[in-house]
Amino acid sequence: MKQGDKILLLCNKKGFSQDYMADKLGITQPAYGNIENNKAKKLSVTRLKELASIPQVNVEDIVNFDDKISI
Q1: What is the pTM of this model?
Q2: Torsional sign, CA 71, 37, 26, 58
Q3: How far apart are the C-alpha atoms of 40 and 6, rounded to whole Å?
Q4: CA–CA separation, 71 vs 34, rounded Å?
Q5: What is the pLDDT of residue 57?
Q6: How far apart are CA 23 and CA 46, in angstroms?
Q7: Secondary element (H or E) of residue 17
Q8: Phi and psi at residue 66, in whole multiples of 5°?
Q9: 50 burial class (0-12, 13-18, 19+ CB within 10 angstroms)?
């Protein structure tokens, strides 16, 4: 599973929309959609930390995501 797919599943589990995530990250919804759709460039560690902080998970939860994880 690619990082964007993992982020999408984590955010779905939290009930976060693309608009909400984009607003929290200070980017446009289409730019955030590209992250979830694996169309964004490789995510930096800084961006991964920002993404993880919103649903209050660890970067490791994104990198090693398992759909059975309890969030």
Answers
A1: 0.83
A2: positive
A3: 14
A4: 23
A5: 87
A6: 17
A7: none
A8: -125, 130
A9: middle
Judge whether 65 and 9 are in contact, CB under 8 Å. Answer: yes
Dig out the tokens for 44 from the structure. 């930096």
Give the residue extent of every domain in the chain: 3-63
**3-63 CATH pick, 3.30.450.40, 3.10.129.10, 3.40.1280.10, 1.10.260.40:** 1.10.260.40
Judged against a pLDDT cut of 90, whether residue 68 lies above it is answered with: no
Q: Is 11 exposed, middle or buried (0-12, 13-18, 19+ CB in 10 A)?
A: buried
Half-sphere exposure of 36 (CA within 13 A, CB side): 18
Distance of CA 40 to the CA centre of its chain: 12
* Nearest-angstrom CA–CA distance, 35 and 8: 9
